[in-house]
Amino acid sequence: MRRGIKLYIFIIGVMIITFGPAIGRAEYDVIDITKPFLRKIPLAVPLFKTAGGSAEEKRSSETAADFLSDTLDFTGYFKTLDRGAFLFDPERNGVTLANLNFQNWTVVGAELLVTGYYELNNDNISIELRLFDTFKARRVLGKKYSGKVSNQRAIILRFCSDVIHYLTGGKGIFGSKIAFVSNGTGNKEIYICAFDGYDSRRLTVNNTITLFPAWSTDSKWLAFTSYKAGNPDLYIRNLAKGRESKISKQGINITPAWAPGKFELAATLSFSGDQEIYLLTGSGKIIKRITKSRGIDVTPTWSPDGKKIAFVSNRAGSAQIYIKDLDSAKVRRLTYEGRKNTQPTWSPRGDKIAYTSEMEGGHNIFVIGLDGQDPVQLTYDSRDNEAPAWSPDGSLIVFSSNRQGPFRIYVMTAYGTDQRRLLVLAGEQTNPKWSMNHLNN
Amino acid sequence: MQKKIWLMIALVLVIPGLLFAVGCQKKTVTQAKTPAPAPAPAPAPQTQAPAPVSPPDTSAMIMQEDIYFEFDKATLTPAAQDNLMRKAAWLRKNSNAIVTIEGHCDERGTNEYNLALGDRRADSAKAFLVDLGVVASRLTTISYGEERPLCTYQNEECWTKNRRGHFAIN
Questions:
Q1: Nearest CB to A386: which of B110, B123, B140?
Q2: Distance (Å) from the C-alpha of residue B73 to the closest C-alpha of chain A?
Q3: Number of structural domains, chain B?
């Protein structure tokens, strides 16, 4: 809530100037995000040129350059080049199209170059950022931002979003958040952090088991299960107002999943004596029952068009993933390999489902097409890897793993590459869920 | 009323017999026999008397025993059924007791599914007790899935202990 206000101030407080004649985006996308990450684009982000050159300005400028580099690197699209190899001194060489020697960049292998001009004035900053295509010797993006030093992260994220938009045609992930469960206080509670693990904050203070966070499409609502009234009940919280409604029926009230773009959600309730998936209004009223099968039906996940639901059922004996078409009411089984397949999560592009498969030696994350053919294993030989969730652009997957001891949150590309830890917190972290992207461009 | 009591006695006597026929160990039989005579003469005076204080204390031991489930199953093993029959006998004797049945799982499997599995485990224990004449409204269920393990080592011994039904007298 406080962050929302901050962002608003930031929007009116920051001046953004796009330099020169508007440079249209290339007619084609430089990065085809539907293709595996076969080749990363070599990217150079040298230190920024500073206006005055004071030690404080240089330090602040270096933080900005490093953060820009790390942020672009986080996407998995780039190979960030080592600054040591650059034939470039930001304090002596120019950073604009007119005075850059592109051969100095192509010779170190850079295909993209970001330069910055940084000015610190008390607690105000002004940053010019430019993206160049080194082989075409062309500037493709140029922006000037001014604001408070405290807005530096937001400024860099905004420019990075523009870079990703230029390269992929999509909105990227830099305005998204990740909700997860952590037991650092001794109880499982829900926390929220930025897409890159920054600024993690505890959301719930239930002092008991709290599980299964689920973001609404507009990220204004978070649904979750908590035992705070004794029973595993479902809570739907308005994040700005802190208001909650509760679904508290006899039995379990678990695994909420918001219908895309609607104030409705699917969840598993067992008041009938059987665990079934229901469609609920955002205020917790039952609209209809979705599954009708004796046995466990749990963990619904929506297709992005809202027409289908994938879920876990043990109707054939072991836990497997099924897809129900809501119009025709037809149900088909998706997974056949593996003794237990759970935690399905539908890719935001609609063509794939990630899930957790129980194997000898632990759980692993797989991705499968909607035809159910050729599941692809993304994690290997690293104890348990569970609870996958897609980034809003479908390029990354966040998950929970105990590969280094306690369960922590990790991120990898949708193809299983670049697996890294997202953050370090006390206790264990599980059940991550990625919000949609809400950075205003 | 009379009919019900006879039905209960019949059930208590018949079910152990069935278990024996299925091929349970002797132990099961001897244990199962103990509750059989209890419900017939005892209940009527006992409930009116200041029952809650002294007799339950000794016999409530049975309520403290957990029942155990097989991996990924919510069905009751013969041992669990035997244990539940003794619990049913105690519950009939102590008709004021209200019990919460907790369903638990080992940590293998993912926690969403395990929460549902724990729910089924608690439900099957409840259904069995209700079949033995315990009034359903005295039994509430709650699933903790894999969230409250008794034992945290990763071995079969530990997992066996965690796949349990726990009975808390309210």
A1: B110
A2: 10
A3: 1
Q: What is the third-level CATH fold of A2-168?
A: Rossmann fold (3.40.50)
Tokens of A115: 């330069």
pTM for the model: 0.86
Interface of B with A in 56-115 (CB under 8 A): 72, 108-113, 115
Which CATH number fits the domain that encloses residue B33?
3.30.1330.60
Strand, helix or coil for residue A361: coil
How is domain A177-434 classified at the CATH fold level?
Neuraminidase (2.120.10)
Q: Which of A232, A340, A430 sits opposite B115 (nearest CB)?
A: A232
Going by the DSSP 8-state scheme, the letter that residue B37 receives in this structure is: T
Q: Using alpha carbons only, give the angle A335, A303, A269 rounded to the nearest 5 degrees.
A: 80
Q: List every span in chain A annotated with CATH 2.120.10.30.
A: 177-434
Mark A269-281 as b/e (b = at least 16 C-beta within 10 Å).
bbbeebbbbbbbe
User: Is A181 in CB contact (< 8 Å) with chain B?
Assistant: no
Note the residue count of chain B: 170
- Give A63-110 pLDDT, tens digit per residue: 999 999 999 999 999 999 999 999 998 888 889 998 899 999 999 999
Q: Which domain holds residue B132?
A: 2-169
